[in-house]
Amino acid sequence: MASHYLYLSSNPIRFTPVNQHTNVFFDEANGEVFTLDRKGGEEDDSALVVVKSLHGKNEVQFRLEHGSQIKSIKFSPNRNILSVLRSSKMVTFINCRNFNFEDIEYRQTCKSQRAEITSFHWTSNTEVVFITNQSVEYYQVNPDRNVVKLLKLYSINVNWAIFQPRFSTLVVSSSASSTLLQPYMFQNGQVNKLPKFEVAKSLTSEVLQERDVVVTVIYGQLYILVLRSVPRSQNVTLSAPSLGSVAGDIVMYALYKDSPARVAAILSVNIPGSFATHIVDNLILVHHLNAKVSLLFDIFHSINDPEQIPTIFPILAPLPIETTRITFLDAPSWVTFQPNIVIDAKLGCIWQMYVKLNVLETMITDKNQLLDILLLRKKGKEPIIDLCKQALTPGEQNTLQQNPLRGIFDKSSQRRVKIDQSELYSKVLTSFLDNKKANRKFLISVLIDYIRSLNFCRLSVQYCICELLINLIVENKSFYQLHQLLQYRILTDSKPLACLVLSLEKAYPPAFQLAMDMLKRIPSCNEDVVETLLSKKHILAALQYTESIGRGDSVSARKYLELAQNSGDKKLLFTG
């Protein structure tokens, strides 16, 4: 069995490590690392700035004056404006369209003379928010006029603040214990000040630390995750001597624009110590820094009742991260960022954290739970296909309580994985046709269950699925079952399917009428109905059908008279 379900990217982004001449800054919102190299000597305080991106943007190099004074540096999201914090009083802006840096710099100081800027964040390409120790200040930057305009100012005592870029949300801690949180949402020059709320205190600390709070998005919902110390339960997640009576859990607060925040769930970590948190593909990863293991949580199937606060337990037992020769979990120089970033500034590496979905197949014994997890993952397709193959393999068919093909579409309203019917046909179903040990009746029931699910989700059944089912039914001589499927229109009407059913007339005579009924339901198949009837020498029926669809005037009388004469039936020839 595999010993890891998390791993770091094998090719980290490399940058110049921190040293006496080099500073490193990371912009979490844009996923960019800035290295400032000052090797010009005592008389030259300029710095060579190298910018590398996690998202495939081009590497950028340029030189800045007063490099030793820089406390923070960021691009606007479109990289048209460079913003630099050199002092605690002002931010400097430099226009740099297409990385052509202008000589003119323009600046904006914080409004209060006694305030100090602790951080700043871009909320759009032309809007930025300053966080000082006394206020939250929202500005609009006009690069064409080199002007910065104040849009909104909130006076508030700031202990610390965390910015979430996806929803442009700022969460400010303002009380003496830091447990009173004030969220702000920024959009199109407007600020939505959400209701403030108090979070639960920890047993071991009276003051809530910034490192114990994460603002993130999971399944499209904005959450604040707060780590706290609580009395340890008897069901300890990690075995260890002398754990003591205190453990940790994570309280998840859901944030809403039009209503107060509420506790949505509690993640039961049940281990004391220091933690770091990542979000990978909507899975919550909790890294225990002392024990050097990680926990994996999925909240999707637990948070569905606003009146309940579920306690959610890890999917699997704690395991270490799979590392390479240059990585190790307890590195003292590691710093984690959202959503899945690990930086070692001394080593000069940036990694991204990932989940090994393929090993979950061997770790999760409940295959229905495994299917639920995989259906919500971006890269869950291949593991799901493997799971379907396993479920249909002789001797393994009882490992799932339900048909996995049905599950794929029964949960379609929330699924992220999209597996086309043709993919299931080519990668899963056809592989069992040559297997003599495969139970044909079982496969028929699986296909019927799958088709019912497709119909429930209002998805047309593709011909390849219909053809496979009909061939299996004919092979099994279950013609009554075939009749029911066609009569009650379980299979999607199509000309190829009607032709296939028509070909079964010798083995099952009622198939002719079933095929004709299907052709008549397809507007574009009127000519096919007529020609099929004529090929069976049902001349009068063909003529009557032509009249019924309003095409009697276009009928070639000579054609029908010749067919009637050639039939040898004089009574038919003179039928009016």
UniProtKB/TrEMBL annotation:
GO BP: any one term: regulation of autophagy
Location of the Mic1 domain: 411-574
GO CC term (a single one): Mon1-Ccz1 complex
InterPro entries: RMC1, RMC1_C, RMC1_N, WD40/YVTN_repeat-like_dom_sf, WD40_repeat_dom_sf
Domain Regulator of MON1-CCZ1 complex N-terminal: 24-147
One matching Pfam family: RMC1_C
Name of the molecule in the record: Uncharacterized protein
